[in-house]
Write the structure tokens for this entry.
Amino acid sequence: MPEPVLSAGAIRKRFGHLEVLKGISLDAGAGEVISILGASGSGKSTFLRCLNLLEVPDDGRIALGGEAIAFKQGRRGPEPADRRQVQRLRQRIAMVFQSFNLWSHMTVLQNVIEAPVHVQKRPRAECVAEAEALLAKVGIADKRDHYPAHLSGGQQQRAAIARALAQKPEVMLFDEPTSALDPELVGEVLRVMRQLADEGRTMLVVTHEMGFARDVSSRVVFLDGGRVDCSGPPAEMFGAPPTERFGRFVQTHR
Amino acid sequence: MDFAFLGSTWLTLLSGLPLTLKLASGAVSCGFVLALAVAAMRVSGSRLLSGPAQAFVFAFRGTPLLVQVFLIYYGLGQFRPFLQEWGLWPFFRDAYWCALLALSLNTAAYSGEIIRGAIGSVPAGQIEAARACGMGRLTAARRIIGPIALRQALPAYSNEIISMVKATSLASIITLMEVTFIAQKLISQTFRAVEIFVCAGSIYLLVNVAITRAVWALEWWLSPHLRARPREPAALEAAHA
């Protein structure tokens, strides 16, 4: 089996007395689209946030393209040993947030070129050309000079996806990308994500969209109580739920 | 009404305006730099840094500026041998520098809190997005947190600038010949307190109107994202047709 692009092993995380993640392992191969499902509080968002160190796990291993993130024991538990390594790896893992988190003082175009120009230090002209192509791809080329506050939720999320793509990431993390959207705007974002999946991008998607999980993803992972309850190809998972819990989850989330 | 007297008084008082403006702009500039340091220490998360900053704010916000001016100008005079040894005496001997120091420290305490509040109001999600794309702390402070916080801080900060302009009048009691000092001198010569103070007040008022307008303009210029959506090109064309 080829080396996974992103590999997480036995990730644990607790907040105070609450153990949110009780040892979750997940390998994402190149081009895989993994849907992470689970009831609220099952730890799926926390797990995703551990992968790019927005939350620092209490225990476990994370590696990107074979490069493991080094941890050291800090005063308040483990912390990354080398902040620069984390910054370097984050450039290769792009994240799309539930509430978009576009930078409100920048236009759409400025948002998209920010990381390429000021973090990855690529030539500005090249970044602008790429950004325009990306905005066209997500269907908001005409909004390049608009500020986020002037866009609909669906347009903002598509801008955020363009911003993530501009990093030229090896892996994309989606943290409930459609949960903050009005129902009629969900479709336009899912269409863009489906297009990315078809291009063979490696994606980890925390979602409540059963349709996306079933039709687009190559693998479905179901978290329950901070553990992986079951996982497998969507056809098998949805055809015959391997566990009673997942069966009940599918029933309630039609 | 004796307009000739008002006119000549106004012109006489105006000769104190350069010093008033020098004190105010000097104090606001030095105070801003100090305030950035105070705010940075306050939000650093290290108790070793935030503790002293908090104590500084507590002391300078909790005591009258007049007392601070007195303490620095008259109080430090008691430590003259020590200050001379350190070569600081020429600085503390001069009423101008003492006033500037007192005003700067005072505004640094207030502005530090304004800036800290503005930094705290930057949406956590936008900071998270900066971290998530691999931005380092300094770049995030410069590109994301700073610009957003600046816009948040401006209205409160313009208040602080205006109070500083007015606070320069306290320098008159340590013999600096700014607007208020000249006003008092004129009063002791003419005993026409009302006319003279009305003239002095109007000078401060004009300066502050100018400052208010300038900050409004700056706010407007910095906040295109908070204004109404620009009209779509299509709509514009339709309007011209």
Notes: Residues 6-98+171-252 of chain A form a domain with the Rossmann fold fold (CATH 3.40.50.300).
